[in-house]
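Hello,

Our lab assistant flagged a job as stuck in the queue for most of the afternoon. It eventually completed. Since we weren't sure the result was trustworthy after the delay, we are filing this so someone can double-check. Below is the sequence as submitted and the structure that was eventually returned. Let us know if re-running is recommended.
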Amino acid sequence: MKAYEGRAAAVAGTGRDPVNLPMIRHWCEAMGDRNPAYAGPDAIAPPTMLQAWIMGGLDGHAGGRARPYEELLALLDEEGCTSVVATDCEQEYLRPLRPGDEVAFDTVIESVSERKTTKLGTGHFVTTRTDVRVGSELVGTHRFRILKYAPARRKQRERRPRPVVNRDNAGFWEGVREHRLLIQRCTACATLRFPWLPGCHACGCPDWDTVEAEGTGTVFSYVVMHHPPFPAFEPPYAIGLVELAEGVRIVSNVVGVPYDKVRIGMPVRLEFRRYDEELTLPVFQGVAQ
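-- returned structure --
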């Protein structure tokens, strides 16, 4: 593949349109750039528009890809590097472009890297250099780098951590498996409690029964988890302290609405979400306000 370095990637390409004020205006409006140098009778084009004048659009332009470049891409495909991603570009500006300039360009394969391993997969970085001219004058250079790679095999999605089940909370998790959210109730003073405890925090009585939550509530407080990332979770996501209609509070995910739309006081409704063949968890569907 090193033999392709220095060979053509595009020959005698021409811009589809001369440098013009309407395109300059659209570019500046999109970028929010109000530099007076880009407007008026003596306007120049923003230097970073260099590539815009040589893009072929949907229909391409005169002077397309050269055979050596097509051969290199085919060779990489044969090696299993069937995917491609743009990685970076560099531009050098030698003189400003002005309305009316007609650009032409030639592109060469500047370098092909040794095989590299990345998070995306293994492959080769291919750098092309495009020389942009007006007439015979070199006005700028554009280097563009891609990675042609063989996609890495994705690891099997990691499972969520298992809840710790013990003799004090086993009844709660049995209820979850049956899609019932059970709340402890003291048989002496009828105080409801959550999370589950071995005795009543109000009167100390060790005896209890359960009531089933109706499943409605509101967000009492919440946080949005951005970092650190953790296997089986996809940040950012909202974790809510939900006050149930029965008066107790439970911590769980707020789902069904964008994380940045969760608000204190937002009404939520219980649902049971299955994450794998063994794990079902109670979560709360939010209602955007």
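-- support follow-up --
The delay was a queue issue, not a problem with the job. The result is valid. Residues 170-286 form a domain with the OB fold (Dihydrolipoamide Acetyltransferase, E2P) fold (CATH 2.40.50.840). The chain has a mean pLDDT of 91.
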